[in-house]
Amino acid sequence: MRHILKSSFGLILAAGAAHAETIVQIPGIVSGFGTLTTDGIIDGAMVVPSLRSSEVLAFQPERLMSPSEKLQVGPIEADVPGNFFFPRQRERHGIIPVTLAKEQFTFTTVRGQSNELVTVGFRAPFRELVRLGQEKAPFTDLLAIVQFTKYDVARDRDWSQDRSLATVVANNFRNQLPYRWTRTAAPAGSSDLVVNFEKTPAARWMVADVKGNAQASGNLNTRGTAQHEFKTLFLRLDLNADKEISSGRGWIRGASSLARISVSNLPAALSNVAVNRARLTWRPVTDAGWMTIIRSQGEAPSSFGILARPTGVVKQEWVNAADGSYDLGTPLGPYESVALIFVGTDRAVPMPIPGNPEVEDPLFTYASEVRMKLMQ
User: Strand pairing partners for 85?
Assistant: First the structure.
C-alpha cells in the first residue's frame, strides 16, 4: 500500500502519530556469510528495525524493503532494496561467469528514536533474483523466491548518530513452527503470504519468516530460543493493474509454543469503500474490533512498489467500524491516499488511545483478523 503507512524505514506507525521526524540514512556492512561458492544461489541479508506492536497490526511486506539501489551483476544492472546487502560472490549468467556484489546497505531511521537492529540472512535463486530486479517486479514476487536462513538482533538504542554500521548473520533460524492454512487458491492478481513475527529481547517483534505464495501447510522459522512468543499473519493481498497493493485481509494468531497453528479461509473483505470529496464511506462492520483511518502523502513509487522517499502520515484516527463513514475534512490532494484498516478481535476491547507506542494495547493482544483497503 504505497502511501498509507509510515514505513519502518524511519517513520513509525503508532496510534496518534501525526507527522514525520528527521530522517537519517546510515551505510553499513554485513559479515558472517562464510565461504561462498558458485552454486546458482545468491546469499544476502537485509537490515531492518524490530517492530512495535502497532506496526505489526498494520504490517505490509514492503516494510521489509527500503527505496531501491543498484546491484551490478557483471554487465547487468538491477534494482534491489537499499537495505539489502550482497557479499561479493561469483555466479554464471548463461555460460558467462559474473561477479555480484552490493557491499553496502542503507539503514534508514529517525533521529532520537531507539531501535533494535535486526539482520536477516537469506538465499535466493540467482537467475530469478536478477530477472525480477530487471523487470522491476512487485515485492510479492521477490518474497516468493527468498528463503530466510540466519539472523542477528543488535541491542536497542538510538543508531542515528552512527556514521556507519557493522552487523553479522551469526545465528541459524530453526524451521520448527508448523502451520496449516486451508483456503481456496488465490485468484490472478492476488498473493497469499504467511508472516511469522517473534518477540525480541526488547519486547518488540522481528520478522522471522515470510512465505510468499504460501503453501497450504509447512513450517515457519523461529529463533530457536528456550521461550517463544509469536504473532503469525495469514494474509491475502490484492494487487491493482500497476501491481501495487489495493487491499488485503487475513488472520492474526498468537502462540507461545511450537504447536501447529491452523486457520481456514479468510475474513470478509471491506466493501463499498468510496471517497466522495471529503466524505469516506464503507459498508459498516459490526464485528468486535476497531477501524483506523490513515491519511498520508508521498511520492510515486520506485522499484518493487517502494517509495523513492518515505511517506508522511497527515492524520490517523481510530473510529467505530460500525459507523460506516468518516469526514476527511478536505478532499484528497495529489499523491495523497487514505487507508482503512480494520483490526478485529476475539472479544470486545476498548478503543486504542494515543500514547506510548511501547505499551502493548489490548487491541494487539486480542487481535484475530485484519482487513485493509487503500483509496487514492
Answer: 45
Q: Is-contact 248 225, C-beta < 8 A?
A: no
- As a whole number of angstroms, the distance between CA 315 and CA 329 comes to 11
Query: Long-range contacts of range 345-353, CB-CB < 8 Å, 24 or more positions apart?
Result: 345/288, 345/289, 346/288, 347/288, 348/288, 349/288, 349/289, 349/290, 351/290, 351/318, 351/320, 352/15, 352/54, 352/290, 352/292, 352/318, 353/15
Go through the chain and tell me how many residues it has: 376
DSSP assignment of 35-80 equals ----SSEEEEEEEEE-B-HHHHHT--GGGG-PSEEEEEETTEEEEE
Least Cα distance to 101 among 134, 78, 121 occurs for 78
The helix (H) or strand (E) run that includes residue 365 is helix 362-365
Which letter, b or e, does each residue of 165-175 get, where b requires 16 or more Cβ atoms within 10 Å of its Cβ? bebbbebebeb
Helix (H, G, I), strand (E, B) or coil at 362: helix
CA 157 to CA 167: how far, in whole Å? Answer: 14
Rg (CA), the chain: 20
Smallest CA-to-CA distance from 112 within 160, 51, 49 is with 160
- Euclidean distance between CA atoms 43 and 33, whole angstroms: 8
pLDDT in tens, 319-367: 999 999 999 999 998 888 899 999 999 999 999 876 666 667 899 999 9
Q: Which residue has the cell 510468499?
A: 212
**String of DSSP letters for 88-157:** EEEEEETTEEEEEEE--EEEEEETT-EEEEEEEEEEEEHHHHHHHHHHT--HHHHHHH-EEEEEEEEEEE
pTM: 0.87
- The C-alpha atoms of residue 241 and residue 33 are separated, in whole angstroms, by 38
